[in-house]
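Lecture 7 notes. Example A: sequence first, then its structure tokens.
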Amino acid sequence: MPAAEVPTTAAANAAAASFAALEARLDYLDAADLERVRQAYRYADTAHLGQMRHSGEPYITHPIAVAAQVAEWKLDASALMAALLHDTLEDCGVSKADLLERFGAQVAELVDGLTKLDKIQFSTREEGQAESFRKMLLAMARDVRVILVKLADRLHNMRTMGDMPRSKWGRIATETLEIYAPIAHRLGLNQTYRELQDLSFRHLKPWRYSVLAKALARARQRRGDLMQKLQHDLQAALADVGLNARIVGREKTLYSLYRKMDHKRQSFAQVNDLYGVRIILPRVLDCYTGLGVLHQMFKPVPGRFKDYIAIPKVNGYQSLHTTLVGPASINIEFQLRTEPMDLVAEAGVAAHWLYKAGLAGHTPDGELGTHWLQSLLDIQNETRDAAEFWDHIKVDLFPDSVYVFTPRGQIMALPQGATTVDFAYAIHSNVGDHTVAAKVNNEQVPLRTELRNGDVVEIITAPVSRPNPAWLGFVRTGRARSRIRSHLKSLAQDESRVLGEKLLAQALRAEGLSQLPGSADGDKPLWDKLLRFTGNRSQEEMYADIGLGKRSASMVAKRLVTLLTAEGAKPDALLLTRERFTAHENLSQGAVLLDGAENASVKYATCCRPIPGDGVVGYLGRGEGLVVHTDDCPVARRLQNKDAERFITVAWADEPVRAFEVGIVVTVVNGKGVLARVAAAIAAAEADIVHMGMAEESAQDALDLRFVISVRDREHLDAVLRSLRRTQSVLRANRGPTSTSGG
């Protein structure tokens, strides 16, 4: 570097590192807050002394740039101080206690939250992202300023990424595009969102970025005069009807252009809506008047009008959108909004602080962005598994919303494809849990019905109703999915606990003791010793583990007998003899009764599909609860040879409470109307068809039709098979497997 340039560079660095560069932006703070921010700057400046960035600038220039962005959003003094101090815990050996003592709890918590986020290393694999993403979203939900400062930090890092090693570009740009840009969009920070996308695109695909930038510059040069004349004509037309408007021309970002070209397989020349015009007007009524003026000047493009003023987007965004065929047949999108709407459109959730900074005559929307953040906390409370949490919220990050109404006229925004069950959970978790039916526009509809814009939705509930596992197949929102899964898990735990207690009591009888110790205080030391042996925190947890097959009932029973005999209990010789004469541990007393009401704790094997009247055995699978097989099932026999001690006695209850599924194979003469006749015969025998399949060789004379049907018991199945055998074109009808090569 030439000697003459050294003082210039040094002077520039000194200017960028000084508080004066930031102070000019802080005119909205009072004197006391300004002094607090100045103290934070001095502390950060001292802490980062001697540290340099990749560009060669003093490190303090980065915290100042982050604070300057935070100041642009008019955030409060605590957020500005956190922006200045955000790297001190990580890089400078400063402790949280130091910050707490010097700057107070609020600033210390914000900096600590930011430091935890800085440690996050996202990978492109979802498994790696899940836990990190969960931490970030929870930090956001606790205090949205944490993520606002983090977004400002990421924005400055992206702006200066050219100084970083090229090997880091791909990871950081991908992370920004996949994680931070969607969060900025979800919080309504549109300007930040667009810039993060463009900067990521620039570093991920530099060649494509460069080619598109040159093409856009040429188009701007060709059409610049045209847009200038359009704005002038528009200003005059609005003034003629007494509207004082501020008109801003804008063009598509390079990334949105690239995405559109890639998605629609278009060349740059085919993209005909490069330009947009934003019209800022004094009042809401003026926006609708201005819309009328526009539609008189130019022809609107059908289907391209959206009223986000009457129905705002979920992140608070409001505007009228219309696309018109402008001069030279160019499609131009116009957005009409008021000044406060423009503020929210660009700054989103940060507009709360911008309003507080003194936008005269307007009050902040305290709910701005908070509904989504609160829903994250609700999902977190119901979901302890990180990957599941990620699965729940990723659908909510970039929603194309539909807007529906409650019967009282309240508007609710839901993601595209949301169903009546999603709507029920959006109202309240209790409403969703007890949903039995739904009406859309006053007509009863299935619960899986997808909602459309403008639907009026009414949910019918019943106190006895509970979430159905089948709902997981069609709900769209993370809130609904997490609540249903949470309920099913707790249900499985309850049922497994009851089953586990019964299994332990059975195993104890096999050891000669007739009943489990009680729960009185005198028995507590005994249970404490047993829980130390099993590693469980409570009796309920131990029972659930036994019921789920995670722990052997016989091993726990043997340990319990040892503890009881140490306290003087003696096994009953008669009981011991009677129990020992049963086959291995298939206990003769107290078999588990099956009536179909067991839900999650008992599964009926699909390899043999047992039904009442069949001989059955129970296999206590590891971690999957009790699986019931027919006693002649080949799969069950293989398991018995390998894992005999995990089989227990099961028996059918006298009065099962539901129908059971069973497979049948019907061989027919192939011909016209044969399927209808077979279906009618099954229906005539009062059975329901659950599933149907056939082999691919449909051109053959004889054809196997495979059904899964729902029957009450063996007698009912026999009646169905007799009905089928009497049917024209049916050669054979038997119970059998349901899988087919053709599916």
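Example B, a different protein, same format:
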Amino acid sequence: MSAPMSWRSEVRWALVGAVLLIAGLYAVFGEVWRHELDTFVPTEISRPDGVLASGEVRELLLGDQRFVAWLVSRNAYTLLEDPGSLYQAEPCFPADGALALGEPGITMGLIAMPFFFLSGDPIITYNLALVALVALGCLAMYILVRGWTGVPAAGIVAALLYGFHEIKIGDIGHPYGYDTSAFVLGLFFATRLLDRARWRDAVGLACCGAFLLAGSFYPTLSCLLVAVPLLPSFLMRAGWRAWSRIAVVVPVLFIVGAFLFEPYLALRAEGVLAPRALQFFMPWSHLAPSGKSFPGWTLLVLAAVALIARNPGNSSDTPAPPRWGLLLGGLLALLLAGGGQGGDFMEAVRNPEFAGPSFPNPYPWLAGFVPGLDNLRGPFGLVMGAHLALSILAGLGAASLLKRLSHRSAILLAIALIAVAWVDTFRPPGLGFSPRVEYGPANIKPPDGMLRFFEDLRAQGNAGPILEIPVAVFHSSHAVLLSAYHRRRTSHCYTSYLPPSFAVVEELASRLPAPPALAGLREMGFTTIIVHHGEAQPLAKVVVERLRVVAQQSAGRELRLLLASGEATAFELRPEHGSRDGGAENP
């Protein structure tokens, strides 16, 4: 494969890659696709460490998935319909800028925009965005390795090892938290910008940087760690024309970053985003062959080949890919991620002695002067930086091997390498392997009765912020996902941090139906009180009856019964003097 490839060969390999991508997506998500996409989402049913044996962990995961389904679809329709209110998320009313109480997930929302436009359904939007996120990761790695080496087969190998690896897609409950594909594609545009100094490559680099910043803090930090050792060699390659383009890209990314992070910095200055009492690091045992963060033998062997081989680049006239810089960046990310005492995440939550690094780790030192590092709950996730670097190196290693052979022999070896990468990644049960991660369908759709309940409220002209009783945190993911359907602001919170107003709302709700509590809720901006029924809420009937009494005694002047069903009862919190201006749309 040392000779330049014809366009027919390029197309053939691209088709092979496309077929393998579709097959890989089906292997991962096929079980879910057999069910209704507006109801079911993929969730983990097994892991090598048995972490899902606990029902508590499974429910926690499903709660996070409800939240992420809301986040992705909510960001999609907000970007389509009212981008100016992006940070004014529905949960945690009356908190201002509620989106900044957790990870933004804006990039996945951007990916989801066409799916929401076509379907209008939150769960369908989330399911399709999840598939697209994995596919885009594979495509980005293919483009980078193909561009750096000129060997499409090497790009396919790297794409399989990167896009479908457990480290990248194993935490299905937080897909955007492990998405480094924008950085991968950014490396492609960066090298083209250095070599050709074209504005379109500068635009591509700026877009990739913006998408990375808008996704999640974890991949952003991981990619920055990988980028640090690459910068010297990259900048030394830049000519004056490339520097003129870079001089535009840098301030653009600074402006984007300022827009994205300003709400977080404001909340941090107010003390809302307080440092974590516990931070969780990866035990080194997880890198063992039986550990859940083991890169895999194929990745390790091909990466080693890349480091000892000659220039695996596209040609001898172009600079060699930054192999040692990638290795150093991966090791840096690994150093900051590792050192946990052992045990799984839930064990560390119950027993704090399992949290924190067991030997000197630079992360706590860096957190002392880099804003935001002390807000990350799980620095163990930075291991994705090591996986990213190894995946690129594996592609370079595969290209080095294929370039040494004749055309016929290279094709046979390419087929063998792709087959090995496939088996090592997917571990097909038909061949006697046990998959490292399996997904099964989980029903997260809100009950039809609650969907009809909010439709009936809308038909009555009821709108505005809702106080939902009982006021809860852990179980509030149901109500937060429901807000993706009715799009009204809600008192429920399911976020990384709770705003100060949440305690006030909780206290006022506990005093209902006392007139001062009703007045306080009205003053905060609530227009509606909804009491959720069910066996899990034994006090619901008592609360409803007390509110009914107030509604009857005030003849609807303070409180008016709007709607009652088997699932919930809604009361209109009337504005003072009985005017109807309190039913305005969300402030």
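Note on Example B: Confidence is low (pLDDT under 50) at residues 48-53, 578-587. The two ends are 62 Å apart (CA to CA).
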